Amino acid sequence: MNQAESRGVREKWETWRPWIGTIVRVALGAIWLWASWEKLRSPRTFVQAVRAYDATPEWLSKAIGYGLPVVEFALGVLLVLGIAVRMSAIASTVLFVVFLVGIVQAAARDIKLTCGCFGGGGASDTTQYTLDILRDLGLLVLAVYLVLWSFTRISIEEYLGRNDYVAPPSAKRMRTDEGRRKYNAMLESRRKAARERALWLNGSIATVVVLIGLIGIGVQSGRAKIAGSLTATNATVKNGVVFGKKAAATVDVYEDMQCPNCRNFEDAVGAQIDKDVRANKAQVRFHLMSFLDSSSNGNRYSSRAANAALCASDISVDDFVAYHNYLYKPSIQPAENSHGRTDAQLISYAQKVGIKGTSLTNFTGCVQNETHKSLVEALDEQASKNGVHSTPTIKVNGKSISPTLAAWNKAIAKALEKGPAPNPSKTPSPTPTPSSTSASPSASKSPSKSASKSASPSTSAPKS
Questions:
Q1: Total domain count for the chain?
Q2: What average pLDDT score do residues 375-384 get?
Q3: Which residue segment(s) compose the domain that 372 sits in?
Q4: 3-state secondary structure string, the chain?
Q5: What is the per-residue pLDDT across 113-166, written as a single tens digit (0 to 9) for each?
């Protein structure tokens, strides 16, 4: 390529570069706006997604979860309007690098999650790390382009830049030293004013964005608070539903009603759980999660099923166990990404496990009104705070174990070596038939009722 051709290529590049930058700027701004929208709508969900990366302390997870969407929205507005483009591009570059580091470390540690880049996110049975990394690398390239060549067309910066233009004097004046000196002095004066204006504008905008981010953290934190009752007859936010007396092994079971791996755990270990609780070897605390709501075609099955199970716990813990076990039957649990069960079906399942009479009436109202909706949300939030980001998660005396029968038996045996010996005399004795399934919730909490329901074959956990 000769010198003339090279000059021609450079001239074409100079002509087209601002227009290419315009497309990049608007596209990147639109992506930031899209990414921020769902996160702004669901602040608590995004905080839980941040916690799932298991890379930040609680205070920083909340700051990121509440503040990042606000910053993303601000960057989107600045880029679309074409204000402080280079500063916005630098901030975008930093964020994309941070996102890449977060995804890569999660992949390296075999943490299964969806990134939450465009809302949602958190624990998942599947991952798309390769696609996430390639997407963020592509966006990083766009941001770097704007860092290098920030001047674009159809922008407020272009409009302001018109004030810096100095019309050249006539050719006659440019041939004199005085004419050239005045022209160059005027050019330097305009350039200096432009630099000062850009510095002031960028500094002011950066300050405003920081203030908006801080205010956004406060606003989003307030919006993330759970409204409604967090109380239930036999369930608490801290401990979930407690099954059994205090024992050598305190077991925390975190499950989602739509989770197929949870069903596999119940198939393999459910019967042994019932035996160990009856023998006073273990106390099991069921924590119901609902992060798979998005996998039921808008039906919100996970949270509605968790609410229904808590409604059963209002009658008695044993009714909860029977109902919980029934929902994990292969023919009952809906597959992920399928339409979840209806309220009518959830109510019919209660009849299948022996809930009837006044108890069934109360249960029906509880399911239809989603009485424990706030408690379900609080259980999800507490599990996230406890570092639980996938299901099933099983902890025996605070230590996580594999969701297998062998791991369960080993952990319980180890707990018995260190803890007090079982005291079966404190454990309710099974009775032949339930005596109070038609009774009111307060009357249905008798020991004989609790034992009989879990002891009967029709309501015990599925055998492995």
A1: 2
A2: 95
A3: 241-455
A4: CCHHHHHHHHHHHHHHHHHHHHHHHHHHHHHHHHHHHHHHHCHHHHHHHHHHCCCCCHHHHHHHHHHHHHHHHHHHHHHHHCCCHHHHHHHHHHHHHHHHHHHHHHHHCCCCEECCECECCEECCCCCHHHHHHHHHHHHHHHHHHHHCCCCCCCHHHHHHHHHCCCCCCHHHHCCHHHHHHHHHHHHHHHHHHHHHHHHHHHHHHHHHHHHHHHHHHHHHHHHCCCCCCCECCEECCCEEEECCCCCEEEEEEEECCCHHHHHHHHHHHHHHHHHHHCCCEEEEEEEECCCHHHCCCCCHHHHHHHHHHHHHHHCHHHHHHHHHHHCCCCCCCCCCCCCCCHHHHHHHHHHCCCCHHHHHHHHHHHHCCCCHHHHHHHHHHHHHCCCCCCCEEEECCEEECCCHHHHHHHHHHHHHHCCCCCHHHCCCCCCCCCCCCCCCCHHHCHHHHHHHHHCCCCCCCCC
A5: 888 888 877 766 677 899 999 999 999 999 999 999 998 999 888 887 666 666
Give the chain's mean pLDDT.
86
Residues 260 and 132 in one domain: no
Position 365 pLDDT exceeds 80: yes
pLDDT digits over 230-273, tens only?
989 999 999 999 999 999 999 999 999 999 999 999 999 999 99
In a domain, 2, yes or no: no
* Same domain, residue pair 184 and 306: no
Q: In this predicted structure, what is the pLDDT of residue 105?
A: 93
Residue 229: inside a domain: no
